């Protein structure tokens, strides 16, 4: 059983009473010229109180003799109608920091135990459409720890996640290959790959 075994059965309008994770809102605002305008937006309904973010994305690097590799996932995403290539990620629970959420989600989704080492500014996934946001958290993994030898992911019943790693050195080209095979590329890992290519091009 794998993520690719999933398939779309039907698509239909969702009533407000059925919505659990998100809602549509109409925003009224004034533009720089003073004109009143409106904007359609989607909002998550799950952001914890006293939190400035919805979730976290996780940059987990495994240092190998052949070179650093980034941990990725394959997961079927119904809105994309495809299996996506993503970094591990998840929603923040009430009372959690971004760093705590990242360490928890990494263990739940991959089995790896890590420590948060660096956290990004708040980033918005698609600000022209929704208010969903996150912080990217860099997590270091000590491969010498016994718990990182015999991995035990703790996936929810509805989660079907395939974990794999990919060399950072040719991440951009490998993602292009995966796209050619029919996978959808999540913007977080795609943007990271673009950044690596720019660093190579301009010798940053």
UniProtKB/TrEMBL annotation:
Keywords tagged on the record? Hydrolase
**Alphabetized InterPro entries for the sequence:** Nudix_hydrolase, NUDIX_hydrolase-like_dom_sf, NUDIX_hydrolase_CS, NUDIX_hydrolase_dom
Native species? Coniochaeta ligniaria NRRL 30616
Q: Name one GO molecular function term.
A: ADP-ribose diphosphatase activity
Q: Which Gene3D superfamilies match?
A: Nucleoside Triphosphate Pyrophosphohydrolase
Sorted alphabetically, the Gene Ontology BP terms of this entry are: nucleoside phosphate metabolic process; ribose phosphate metabolic process
Q: What is one cellular component GO term in this UniProt entry?
A: mitochondrion
Q: Which Pfam families match?
A: NUDIX
Q: Which PANTHER family match?
A: ADP-SUGAR PYROPHOSPHATASE, UDP/ADP-SUGAR PYROPHOSPHATASE
The molecule here is called ADP-ribose pyrophosphatase
Protein family: Belongs to the Nudix hydrolase family.
Residue span, Nudix hydrolase domain:
51-188
């Amino acid at each position: 059983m794998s993520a690719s075994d999933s398939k779309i059965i039907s698509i239909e309008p969702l009533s407000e009473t059925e919505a659990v994770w998100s809602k549509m809102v109409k925003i009224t605002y004034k533009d720089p010229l003073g004109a009143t305008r409106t904007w359609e937006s989607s909002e998550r309904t799950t952001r914890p109180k006293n939190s400035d973010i919805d979730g976290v994305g996780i940059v987990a690097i495994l240092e190998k003799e052949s070179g650093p590799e980034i941990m990725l996932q394959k997961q079927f995403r119904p809105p994309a109608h495809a299996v996506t290539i993503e970094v591990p990620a998840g929603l923040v629970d009430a009372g959690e920091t971004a760093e705590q959420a990242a360490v928890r989600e990494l263990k739940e989704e991959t089995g790896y135990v890590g420590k948060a080492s660096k956290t990004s500014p708040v980033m918005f996934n698609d600000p022209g459409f929704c208010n969903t946001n996150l912080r990217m958290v860099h997590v270091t993994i000590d491969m010498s720890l016994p718990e990182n030898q015999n991995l035990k992911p703790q996936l929810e019943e509805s989660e079907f996640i395939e974990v794999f790693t990919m060399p950072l050195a040719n991440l951009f080209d490998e993602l292009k290959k995966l796209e050619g095979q029919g996978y959808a590329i999540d913007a977080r890992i795609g943007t990271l790959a673009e950044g690596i290519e720019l660093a190579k091009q301009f010798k940053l």
